[in-house]
């Protein structure tokens, strides 16, 4: 059931937005939906009820979950540049064809190849303690013998600047407060270069999460190419807090860090595409999407297997019910999203001359729990349709 409600959103919003293209810009204004579009939206009520019944009581019940479980059990993690990712894409292409979808194919993408390899961290002063770490995507590694250095702990970039004279030759530990994902993730993304500017030899970042059970997170980070590239990894919230408390008491901290991370030459992968061809305006497209790649330290079930399979489920449901969308419904499963949207950027580059034919593009990549809402970028007229739907 976890994937049910997001999949319904993916179905209902494109159905609603089909009405928008028939209204001229002058027919919409800031506060009221034109009567023609409002009536068309209301006319989809029977379709909505069909979809809900199929998903809740019919053959669609738990279908996306069962497919996801089979997929993640078979392939596990799907790191960009690995054969396992390519095997999982082959699997999806096979089963999308078996599902009877149209125009099933892969589109080549040049993708990043980053390997984690061995990693470890240990507090060696004032006592011996193993620090759990997870190297960040695109990070460089340490020398083979590792880095042994004293550490300082800061809670913000402002404090880093204030203490810049203490940074040279040190490992900088960031123990930033969690203030929501977008605001806090900047520490994971940018801390290595921020600290390298003042002479740091490595950074350890408090995992970007609201709570922890001594769990360490990973994610992408980016270097400022004009600055030295230093190793960077996440640590648990508990360890970040412990190191901060120790420093506050005046204790000197010395850490040994070993990371075998390496960046290899780019290689080939594929975005995965499948469609239900539109019955009236086949050249006009509504995209539902998720990303098929994942990090290497889990199964990629939530990030973003759930998004992949509820997006597929949207097309499965439309086809199973014999619905005939006016516009082409296109499923796109992005590759190499975790490295910064590589697959989606190359898709745009390949299709930008067709941009005028896209009515709406939806991506599910923020979890498959009961949704709180939708993030939306578009015109005021489109926003009215979203709100009314």
UniProtKB/TrEMBL annotation:
One Gene Ontology term of the molecular function aspect: metallodipeptidase activity
GO cellular component: endoplasmic reticulum; extracellular space; Golgi apparatus; lysosome
Compartments reported by the entry: Endoplasmic reticulum; Golgi apparatus; Lysosome; Secreted
Subunit annotation: Homodimer. The monomeric form is inactive while the homodimer is active.
Signal peptide: 1-23
Family per similarity comment: Belongs to the peptidase M28 family.
Pfam families associated with the record: Peptidase_M28
Domain of life: Eukaryota
Protein name, UniProt field: Carboxypeptidase Q
Keywords attached to this entry: Carboxypeptidase, Endoplasmic reticulum, Glycoprotein, Golgi apparatus, Hydrolase, Lysosome, Metal-binding, Metalloprotease, Protease, Secreted, Signal, Zinc, Zymogen
Domain Peptidase M28: 271-366
One record GO biological process: peptide catabolic process
């Amino acid at each position: 059931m976890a994937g049910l409600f997001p999949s319904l959103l993916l179905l209902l919003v494109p159905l609603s937005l089909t009405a928008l293209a028939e209204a001229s810009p002058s027919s919409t204004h800031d506060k009221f939906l034109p009567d023609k579009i409002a009536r068309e939206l209301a006319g989809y009520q029977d379709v909505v009820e069909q979809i809900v019944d199929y998903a809740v009581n019919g053959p669609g019940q738990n279908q996306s979950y069962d497919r996801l479980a089979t997929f993640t059990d078979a392939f596990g993690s799907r790191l960009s540049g690995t054969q396992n990712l390519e095997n999982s894409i082959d699997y999806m292409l096979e089963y999308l064809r078996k599902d009877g979808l149209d125009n099933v194919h892969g589109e080549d993408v040049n993708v990043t190849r980053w390997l984690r390899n061995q990693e470890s961290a240990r507090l060696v002063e004032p006592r011996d303690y193993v620090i759990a770490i997870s190297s960040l995507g695109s990070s460089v590694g340490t020398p083979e013998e590792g880095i042994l250095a004293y550490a300082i702990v800061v809670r913000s970039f402002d404090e880093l600047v204030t203490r810049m004279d203490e940074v040279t030759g040190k490992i900088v530990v960031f123990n930033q407060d969690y203030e929501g994902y977008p605001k806090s993730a900047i520490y994971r993304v940018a801390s290595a270069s921020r600290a390298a500017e003042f002479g740091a030899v490595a950074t350890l970042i408090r995992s970007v999460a609201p709570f922890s059970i001594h769990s360490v997170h990973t994610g992408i980070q980016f270097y400022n190419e004009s600055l030295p590239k230093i190793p960077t990894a996440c640590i648990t919230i508990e360890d970040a807090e412990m190191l901060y408390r120790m420093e506050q008491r005046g204790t000197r901290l010395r850490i040994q860090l070993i990371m075998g991370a390496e960046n290899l030459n780019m290689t080939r992968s594929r975005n995965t595409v499948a469609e239900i061809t539109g019955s009236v305006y086949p050249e006009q497209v509504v995209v539902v999407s998720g990303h098929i790649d994942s990090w290497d330290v889990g199964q990629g079930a939530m990030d973003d297997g759930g998004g992949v399979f509820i997006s597929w489920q949207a097309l499965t449901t439309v086809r199973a019910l014999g619905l005939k969308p006016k516009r082409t419904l296109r499923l796109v499963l992005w590759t190499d999203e975790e490295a910064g949207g590589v697959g989606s950027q190359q898709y745009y580059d390949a299709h930008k001359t067709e941009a005028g034919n896209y009515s709406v593009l939806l991506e599910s990549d923020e979890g498959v729990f009961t949704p709180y809402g939708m993030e939306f970028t578009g015109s005021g007229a489109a926003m009215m349709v979203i709100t009314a739907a």
